[in-house]
């Protein structure tokens, strides 16, 4: 299937909508529930635990539904986005409207928020990721898609900036609520456009098969700017050196930069700011490239087992199953460590952060990327690329 502008634009629209609400949700939900709703740490940990359990269930479940089910909402990737995109946008605004002041009600609010958000995040995320795999099997087309998607994501990046500016960093919570609804409406419109136009060759084949089957029955019955700019530049190196070496180099840099910052110390704020910006760019750009190896794994599986179409949702679902628990574990561990050093007392605005708390924050900033980068570097070494950007074998 020749990659057309319509498919590129539709894929980019879904990516912009997804990035628009996902970045805002991840940036604000901890701040809102801890600093604005004053959720108790016990309820916060309980909600995060339920989140991890549901994540372990939802990823394989929705992967199976999208790859093997004949439900109308999952018959094609396009229809998954068309019908569930508005629900994803709705799940984004659920946490920003409080249910009450009692501790158990705030805790229940966070649990329901996680359930709705992760359900739609997983379903739409798998559909959008699978769309990347199935729009084109050509490596150069996929590099082009990655480049255009990151250029388009620049439009979705300002959602956090817009919410910060309109709400004065959550001091005007009413304005934050109104702006979040506007962001959700924009995302919903983009998902709708993508759902109407994001066709793939498998999409067309499925629809033709469905229509034939349907007609025969009728006779009887009837998924910050810097990250995007970096990845746009990085795609040039991907074409030349393959994504394997680019991703490995990024992991090496993340670990090295963490050790350098740890050696410099916390008394140099400008160095810390540059480190945070560079680390965010490297990790964000690397994450954006992971669609390519996962797409190659799906293609390799299709060829190896002679499937009619790649099991893209299953591949991306397994990947998410292994990586998404970090979204719950990271804030759980971070909040627990910081509260041990008196972070919870800062909510009253009556005390200043102690030296021990500041030092703990600095160590977390440096040690997190070092530890995670080492794990990623070791895991990535088990991939064996036999041909540049084309074939991949998983050991």
Automatic annotation (TrEMBL):
Species whose genome carries this gene: Mytilus galloprovincialis (Mediterranean mussel)
Keywords from the named record: Membrane, Transmembrane, Transmembrane helix
Transmembrane region(s): 9-30, 42-65, 81-99, 105-133, 145-163, 175-196, 245-264, 270-294, 315-341, 361-383
Gene3D superfamilies: MFS general substrate transporter like domains
Coiled coil: none
Entry protein name: Uncharacterized protein
UniProt key word Protein biosynthesis: no
SUPFAM superfamilies for the chain: MFS general substrate transporter
Pfam families linked: MFS_2
InterPro entries according to UniProt: MFS_trans_sf, TMEM180
